[in-house]
Amino acid sequence: MFTFSLVCCMACHGGFSLDEQTRCSWYNPEAVLEDLKEGMTFVDVGCGDGFFSLIAARKVGAEGKVYAVDIDASRVEKLQNKAAEQGLTNIEAMVGRAEDAVFCRGCADFVLYSMDLHDFDEPQKVLENARVMLKASGVLVDLDWKKMQMEFGPPERIRFSEARVAEMLELADFRVASTKDAGPYHYLITAKPK
Ligand SMILES: C[S@@+](CC[C@H](N)C(=O)[O-])C[C@H]1O[C@@H](n2cnc3c(N)ncnc32)[C@H](O)[C@@H]1O
């Protein structure tokens, strides 16, 4: 097994630097990926430096697959370098817009948005892409900032409330399976294809 500190990394969130200890003091990454099992296909949309992709690659193992996409080439390169350093060969990371990213049809077991759904230009389109990629038995997980004033993170005005995400999910042909707190600053929404 691997520990939180081993799997965490640096990432930029709303203009501040998110170090591994800080992220792991907020929420448990293992709980976010609770439904991910060995052999599964995982998609990390807006993957950044690959904080979750790297954990997922270990969880799904050699028989599984991780697809990752980010618009920022430097961040995808960091993910690729880390994967190589850690001997992970089951990650396919690409530079691109989430709005254009459909890695496969009906093949994914798990699609993740980690703290980024509000960042996309067309979040509704991005959710529709998840619906295309997911198997009927698959799960979509949205981890994001609570819509409230904080001294860090993205500005409140651009954050999505849980209710807004639920509306968008419904429009994209998902049903919300659960909505939970993920620590003091984030929520975790799990949805299934209808
Ligand atoms: C707040 S970071 C989150 C990164 C990662 N999910 C994590 O948990 O560390 C948001 C990421 O979304 C990416 N992003 C923003 N707009 C995007 C788009 N339209 N398509 C793909 N990635 C995008 C940014 O480049 C950035 O890496």
* H and E string: HEEHHEHEHEEHEHEE
Heteromolecules bound = S-adenosylmethionine
CATH architecture: 3-Layer(aba) Sandwich
Helix content: 25-40%
Provide the CATH superfamily: Vaccinia Virus protein VP39
Largest sheet composition = 7 strands, mixed
- Rg is 15 Å
Structural notes for this entry:
This protein is an alpha/beta fold. The chain has one domain: Vaccinia Virus protein VP39 (Rossmann fold). It is built from seven helices and nine strands. The protein has helices at 4-7, 20-26, 29-32, 51-60, 73-85, 123-133, 162-171, and strands spanning 11-13, 16-18, 41-45, 65-70, 91-95, 108-114, 134-145, 174-182, 186-193. Strands 5-4-3-6-7-9-8 form a seven-stranded mixed sheet, with helices on both faces. A two-stranded antiparallel ribbon has the order 1-2. The longest helix has 13 residues, at 73-85. It is globular and about 40 Å long. It binds S-adenosylmethionine. S-adenosylmethionine binds next to strand 1, helix 4 and strand 4.
Which descriptors apply to this entry?
30% helix, globular, disordered N terminus, 194 residues, seven-stranded mixed beta sheet, Rossmann fold, 9 strands
